[in-house]
Amino acid sequence: MTINQDAYAPSQETTEGRVYSVTGGDWDSLVTEIGQAKEERVVVNMGPQHPSTHGVLRLVLELEGETITEARAGIGYLHTGIEKNTEYRSWTQGVTFITRMDYLAPIFNETAYCLSLEKLLGITNDVPERASEIRVLMMELNRISSHMVALGTGALELGALSPMIFAFRERELVLDLFEYISGLRMNMAYVRPGGVAQDLPKGATTRIRETVTQLRKNFKDNEKLLVGNTIWMKRTQNIGYLDLAGCTTLGITGPVLRSTGLPWDLRKTQPYCGYENYEFDVITTDTCDVYGRFLIRMQELEQSLRIIEQACDKLDKSEGQPVMVADKKIAWPAQLSVGKDGMGNSLDHIREIMGESMESLIHHFKIVTEGFRVPAGQSYAAVESPRGETGVHLVSDGGTRPYRVHFREPSFNNLQATSAMAEGGMIADVIGAVASIDPVMGGVDR
């Protein structure tokens, strides 16, 4: 079997099946290639400002009529440089950068980073149990808010407006909780090395339980609108097909992988933050299509609510316990808490470092401006984010700043599936396929 070695060669049929091109390509070179093809082809540039390309994703589609003969994903339009920026900040300051990568799942970015850093510091077992419980609570709330965007915008892109209105209504409830707990709705930098920035406000679990009850009731609205809806089924069933072999070849994780029937979820297979102590199910389907991924996200919402309820029970029992490691060389000298206005530090914290202890003030100044030293070495930790495996590889040279920070970002890997899902299908089905991948370009162009 001979295959053209050109990186930008079109997909071809071989004796072992179809070969897909998962590389990108320049517009100029693609246009030049059209004239060389014997068949009549049209190249369409979709994005990077198209409303269904999830931010700034660019798709270059080669069409024969309305059938896609080749699809290539072009990335790099966001160019955040977050990974490089963290090399010029202290280890704790890095949290405020990486939380902005996958901006729909900030808590997962922060937790993966801190878990990897805690491995390097050798304090994994020293992180207070209450801090891990709060991390689990916040991650599952974040999973719900992220899935609400995926389900709402995915439906909107296929022509259904009402589901998006309902989905964003539910997301607002979760963002209100984030603001109540951390002071911010997104990009909170709430998870810190050694624990979390501050404890839950008094009465937080009661308010969270009330929100869970409301969410469980409201989730049924979208379910009634879309599950079994004839138009929705025709737009999603057997669309964006990618089987288990394709997923494992391309390194796909998350709902796209679980839609092939494989129950791969790091919360079960490689537990972290005490997930082994929570009861929940790993949701799978065997359809390998857009509809299956939609069902998985819908059903994962209930599993997240189950975990949140269990986390609230655990938090009620651990009330008053610390939420940061005892080592003052890593932890800040006074427990942080949000002020009464919902912004800034509490007066108690300011009084501690400014009026009561000169040593605390000196230490606070040193740890905030210089940071703590991390032993030389490297580590990797991963969490199950709404889009799949978010992994962090940290390298330390023994200083107060990272030598290298690298994220294994699921959106980046999952986008490789675009051509395999789209080629051979109709141009209208690309939108559903990309929506089912649910890429966030902040994570791709990190």
Helix proportion? 40-55%
Poorly predicted tracts of residues? 1-10
Rg: 23 Å
Biggest sheet, strands in spatial order? 3-4-5
SSE arrangement, N to C: EEHEEEHHHHHEEHHHHHHHHEEEHHHH
Instruction: Kindly report how far apart the N and C termini lie.
Output: 38 Å
Number of strands: 10
H/I helix tally: 18
Shape: globular
Q: Structural class of the secondary elements?
A: alpha+beta
Task: Give the oligomer, counting copies of the same chain as homo and different chains as hetero.
Answer: single chain
Largest sheet: 3 strands, antiparallel
The mean pLDDT is 84
How large a portion of the residues is in β-strands, by DSSP E? 5-15%
Explain the overall architecture:
It is a single chain. This protein has 446 residues and is α+β, with helices and mostly antiparallel strands. Helices cover 46% and strands 12% of the residues. The chain contains 18 helices and ten strands. The chain has helices spanning 27-36, 82-85, 94-98, 106-121, 129-157, 162-182, 204-226, 230-236, 244-250, 255-258, 266-269, 290-317, 347-356, 358-369, 410-414, 417-422, 427-437, 441-444; strands spanning 12-14, 17-19, 42-46, 58-64, 67-74, 191-192, 195-196, 377-385, 388-396, 404-408. It has a three-stranded antiparallel beta sheet with strand order 3-4-5. It has a three-stranded antiparallel beta sheet with strand order 8-9-10. It has a two-stranded antiparallel sheet with strand order 1-2. A hairpin with a 2-residue loop joins strand 6 and strand 7. Helix 6 (162-182) packs antiparallel against helix 7. The longest helix is centred in the N-terminal third of the chain and has 29 residues, at 129-157. It is globular.
